[in-house]
UniProtKB/TrEMBL annotation:
It comes from the Bacteria. Keywords: Membrane, Transmembrane, Transmembrane helix. Pfam families: DUF7144. This is DUF7144 domain-containing protein. Residues 8-121 form the DUF7144 domain. InterPro entries: DUF7144. Residues 149-159 have a biased composition (Basic and acidic residues). Residues 126-159 are annotated as: Disordered. It comes from Actinorugispora endophytica. The chain crosses the membrane at residues 7-32, 44-64, 76-95, 101-121. Coiled coil: none annotated.
Amino acid sequence: MNRTQNGWVIFAATMLLMVGAINLIQGVITMFMPTYLLAAEGDVLFFGFTLWGIGLVVWGLLLLATGFSLASRQNWARVLGIVFAAVNAITQLAFIAAYPWWSLAVIAIDLLVIYGLTVGWSSEPEPSYASGRADAQEGLRAPKQGTRGRQESRGEHAL
């Protein structure tokens, strides 16, 4: 991974950590202070405030875990980060009635996360993977010992 890709992944990890913290805070506020939201009970999509709050807390923890995994350069976290950011952006649409500017800001951050995780994604294998692969292929080309005739040892020379 080159420096530019590494910088974008760290940027996306930081943004994902921010979005996870925002969701966690939003979930706690929704659970314990439903009057803080500007929407009436009937305006919340699908469920009541308490269930939305619990869901947002769990979701925020998942986003935080993914952000920390990205920061520690786990390759699987890159795909998970893209999926979670996309789902989070769609989920924020449910809160547009309550806080339109807040939801739009979180959606913008989610789009930056998706961009940061996809901008430098190379189809080329990473150098460490490529060197391991080259070593494995070299091992396949080397002759196997003991398969043809007498093998030379120290002190013996083939005539």
